[in-house]
Design a protein that fits this description.
- This protein has 504 residues and is of the alpha/beta class.
- Among the domains are: 245 residues, 3-Layer(aba) Sandwich (Rossmann fold); 106 residues, no CATH class.
- It is 43% helix and 13% strand.
- A ten-stranded mixed beta sheet has the order 1-2-3-5-4-6-7-10-11-12, with helices on both faces. A two-stranded antiparallel ribbon has the order 8-9.
- β10, α17 and β11 form a beta-alpha-beta unit.
- The protein starts with 6 loop residues before the first helix and ends with a strand.
- One of its GO terms (molecular function) is hydrolase activity.
- It holds the Pfam family Abhydrolase_4.
- InterPro entries: AB_hydrolase_fold, Pept_S33_TAP-like_C, Serine_prot/Carboxylest_S33.
């Protein structure tokens, strides 16, 4: 569920390791008065100033209350970037969220506009990227003071053997220390980076750009934000597209085990493709190759492999390196290169993939706060099981559901068990009763947001319409499949929904 924001850079990044004009001025349209509570009027009626930025873009910053139930309290900043429509008959704004949670919508639109939306959509909409509260250029969640601290958190090792009493104690101390650092460095914000608050921010931003309804494209986690928005503000929901859907009724463990199964399924699909090629680093059947990977991970867990920069590649980092290329079938060839290198004693390509996943540069600099925001938002969006007996049961279920990578994704509940802020969101179905049509896109081989979540979300929504892409990889719109692209563009540009149960 991590962001698809950096997918556009993955192939180039791994390949390297393994081998201005100003925007037109657009006046803000005036809206008829809405029923805005008087205490919220200063936020909904604030003036925002769009300034030239990036290449042919405009940027602006809006203010919102940290706590929407206490608008007289502290405020935060929300960063936006927009690419202005070139058509004189513009259809309004299209807000885009790339997922995560924790991914920067500002970076996504500023750096990957053509990947985010089609040229026809760019022509007819002001395409707006925004950083949700706690993320990127908006007022950020902060948990570490240095890149070295983040390296230790993501890539460090516990001294004790995995799942020994000493290992659990070390892990508990590390997660508690990280949570405490987040609380000290982020202050009151940490209690209010939940998706409900982000949806309220989004409604304010909609109003500030002069749109009567929110037109929205959400990828991955962005589908949860879109679904919660439609549930909270159904009358304000315009043309909404949710690609790579999450099911809002899923618990934290449901999400973890379903994703583990999804990545394991994608890993088997990769191996089936790999084994048909002479250059594949595996031999035999898919089952035999899966067993080889399991043995490799077990070996790395006991005896990490040194990289050229001195870091040690253990099983957890290797699982991240495996997962990252599975987001996109176009990167499967680089996964083969990673396995080949590790089998030959070279950890550098695996670290390149893991670093890409965490947006860490070759110089060891993290490009954003996406990891900190990812944890903070998830801890508020999913109530955490604190019974360690249940953790053990979940761990066994996870290992059974995904025998190869599941053992290294277990015990995740511990990350939020001592979080200093309680969860705000609870799992539950959404109907968005009173909204307009909402397109939900699911990819049959999506590892990060498995297809059944799209089916479930589309069924929950009163006006949900499912588009099925029969293929591999995470999300489907504006990639190589014209069937999906044309259906989405027709909906965004004309409001016409595709035929029932469209399969592409």
């Amino acid at each position: 569920m991590r962001a698809l924001l950096r997918l556009t850079a993955l192939v180039a990044t791994l390949a390297l390791t393994l081998s201005a004009c100003s925007a037109p001025v657009v006046p803000e349209p005036s809206l008829p008065p809405e029923s805005i509570p008087s205490e919220l009027a200063p936020f909904y009626n604030q003036d925002i100033s769009w300034q030239d930025c990036y290449e042919a873009m405009e940027c602006a910053v809006a203010k919102a209350p940290i706590d929407w139930s206490n608008p007289q309290g502290q405020t935060l900043e929300l960063a936006m970037v927009r690419h202005v429509a070139s058509s004189s008959d513009r259809l309004g704004s299209l807000f885009v969220n790339p997922g995560g949670p924790g991914a920067s919508g500002v970076d996504f639109i500023a750096n990957s506009l053509d990947y985010a939306v089609s040229k026809d959509v760019q022509k007819n909409y002001d395409v707006i990227g925004f950083d949700p509260r706690g993320v990127g250029q908006s007022t950020p969640v902060t948990c570490v003071d240095s890149d070295a601290e983040m390296d230790e958190y993501l890539y460090g090792f516990f001294d004790a053997p995995r799942e020994s009493p000493e290992w659990f104690a070390e892990r508990a101390a590390a997660t508690q220390a990280f949570a405490q650092d987040c609380a000290e460095k982020s202050g009151a914000l940490l209690e209010h980076v939940d998706t409900i608050s982000a949806a309220r921010d989004l409604d304010m931003l909609r109003y500030l750009v002069g749109d009567r309804q929110l037109n929205y494209l959400g990828y991955s986690y962005g589908t949860l934000l879109g679904a919660i928005y439609a549930e909270t503000f159904p009358a304000n929901a315009g043309r909404m597209v949710l690609d790579g859907a999450l099911n809002p009724a899923s618990s934290s463990f449901d999400v973890t085990v379903t994703q583990a199964q999804g990545f394991e399924k994608a890993l088997r699909a990769y191996l089936a493709d790999c084994l048909s090629q002479s250059s594949c680093p595996f031999r035999g059947s898919v089952d035999q190759a899966m067993q080889s990977i399991s043995e490799l991970l077990s070996q790395l867990d006991k005896d990490p492999l040194a990289a050229s920069d001195g870091r040690l590649l253990g099983a957890d980092a290797m699982v991240t390196a495996i997962i990252a290329p599975l987001y996109d079938k176009e990167a499967w060839g680089y996964l083969s290169d990673i396995f080949t290198a590790v089998f030959e004693g070279d950890a550098d390509p695996a670290f390149a993939a893991a670093d890409w996943y965490y947006n860490r540069s070759e110089a060891g600099v993290y490009g954003d706060n996406s990891t900190e925001a990812f944890i903070a938002i998830n801890c508020l969006d999913y109530p955490t099981e604190t019974d360690q007996t249940q953790w053990a049961l979940h761990a066994e279920k996870l290992k059974s559901a995904a025998p190869v990578i599941g053992p290294y994704l277990a015990w995740g509940e511990q990350s939020c068990a001592t979080w200093p802020a309680p969860a705000v969101l609870s799992p539950g179905e959404v109907s968005a009763s009173g909204s307009g049509d909402i397109l939900v896109i699911g990819t049959t081989g999506d590892p990060a947001t498995p297809y059944r979540w799209a089916q479930e979300l589309a069924a929950q929504l009163d006006h949900g319409h499912l588009i099925t892409y029969v293929g591999e990889g995470h999300t489907a719109y504006n990639k190589s499949n014209s069937c999906v692209k044309d259906a989405v563009d027709t909906f965004l540009l004309r409001g016409t929904v595709p035929a029932k149960d469209l399969r592409c």
